[in-house]
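Entry:
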Amino acid sequence: MSKKNVYLFQINYTVRVAGTDSLWLPYSIACLTAYAKSKKDITDYFEFGPELFCSREDPHELIERLDNPAVCGFSNYVWNTEWNLYMSKLVKERYPDCVIMFGGPNVWPNMENEYDHIDVFMKLEGEFAFVDLLRKVRDNEPLPRTLSGERIHELHELVDPYESGEFDWLVQNYPDKVWNAVYETNRGCPFLCTFCDWGGLTYTKVKKFEMDRVENNWKWMSQNRVAYVLSADANVGIFKDRDIEIAKIARKYADAPTSIIDGINFQYNKNNTDVCLEIASILGNYSRGITFAVQSMSESVLEAIKRKNLQMNKLEHLLKEANKRNLYSYTELILPMPEETLDSWRDGLSKILEIGQHYAISVWNTQILKNSEMNTPEYRKEYGLDIIEAYDYTNYKNPNDWQGAPERIGLVRATNTMTLPETVNCWVYSILLREFHINGVTQMLSRYLFGKYGVRYREFYDRLFDILREHPITKDAIDFVTQVEEHYLTTGTVADIKTMDVTFDFPKLFGVPQSELPPGHFMKDLLNKFIFMNINLLREIAVKMVKEDLGYDVPDEVVTFNNAYMYNEDYEYPLKVTLDYNILEEEEKQTTYTLEPKILKMDLKFKKKDPVMFYKQGAYKSNLTTESKGAVPMAESGFNREDGADTNEGRSKDDQAAPNNFGSVHGSPSGKGVASVQVHASSTTDHPTDIGHKSPSEAQLEIDDSNVLIHRDLEVYSD
């Protein structure tokens, strides 16, 4: 008797990194096949694969590679549900006797009543339930519409898909691809955040895998063209000694001669502790950064979403420690959350800056995950959640991905404490704050005023953005972004730019043609090019605002320091500036700064990249070496997304920052732009990029592509 064929699908978007397409290894379905293949009664009857389908191919072409399937299983999440539904219908039409199974986090309550062509819906942990399903198929038993997996307590009973060779076929048959890998060292989450489905799906008790499995995973990844690694652990650092040891294992194999691993993304413990700093220090340049996922700074919001952040003083301590150690960190927020108001949102952003986060703030729309508490009728009613079904929120628009069956997700656009216009207002405010403060246009000016005179960042940016909304240089650009955000949250679709009046240039983003707008989440980058091209005028507006509206006649040296912090052709570098206040340490102390933009030290092999991308990724920012009277030299990195290096490294002692007289500026203006670097390209990316650590295609960086990323800074979809 010939064996029955089983095919599994875990589809994800293709991401182009450093000119090379990268795919996600389908870890979830590999766990199912690895365990099922360990059962002789299963392998005697079923034939698996050989391919675990993971690429967003055209279903009409992919179905031709199936040979009379008996079972087709689909791993379901927000980035592939519509593709899965489309493909599964094709399979059912051609092979009506094939058992169609849906599993994964996006199998929602009562889904079985919506889709007749799907035979079985699997919920919770899948390894044991999948084997049960196959046995029922083999024995011709009636199939239940839903099959709920049990909590797996003894994780050592499971089979490691890396060690069992589940991915070997993919690596061998796609030699032109690099891979993004997921692995896990434990399962479970002790938190029950209402916007998340993690704790509710896997229960709150955390179970651990054996350390041998963890090390074997890293060894395999270091030998098989894996460039980016995402830990599926919900709270890295929750087991201090164990997680530190895992970080050492990760670093060892990332450093291995055969490794092309360039980025490691850990989801750190929600209540961040110093152990997270230690783990990030061990990972070094591979770390994507320490996540301070506060979601909101409002106590009423945190109570509504069942989340408790660290106390402000603890957050401030961790941020300052990260900065001292030159560890990259980023703060995540979600908009709009229940109980958030326009006032609390702006105030929360100001608080984040006040405790020392000046390098990365990431804002996500509030997404309604199907199995989250936030999706229950009672919760939605209590907080007045107004939800729009939105399309293509995180589509990377890779030209090799099939663009049919666009994915959709519910986005909260208003609550009983924030109207739709207020949500749009908060979004635009966040975009402007990122451009002006995080990207460095007015960062040093506002930090000086905050430290020296106690001017809150909110006061500074509220007034600046009010002026910009009416200023003839900026009004049209801000109005355009406002219209784009409003259209997306009103209709759930990206606006057709051909129907809009566009009076400024915006960058090409990802695989989207210049004549189209990017997917929803990436609209936040629409102002990158406009800000970059008008940066000197925008600085002048800010300085004028400080003097005329806020009433502070700041020293010329402060203006010079702010304007030269990002590479400026009007100055020669290295540039030394002495101020009456230490901005970095927030101390009343005469301090001399040496500014040296990172772009001036870059390898010319990156010369074809777009200058707008360099601006966006922070490459125009300066490394800052400081020396204060009675203090030792310190350094601060300028990259938006990099673990900054010691800027005194490699310099002679005479070339390091030295004491100076207040009021003097070393490095006079030079209209000729003596230190300028010419960089040319046609596009920009969504993500700040760490230039040239260990890219898999480093030797071929003739880049003119719209999806140029380095793996370390690959922004993945997560809560």
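Confidence is low (pLDDT under 50) at residues 630-635, 638-719.
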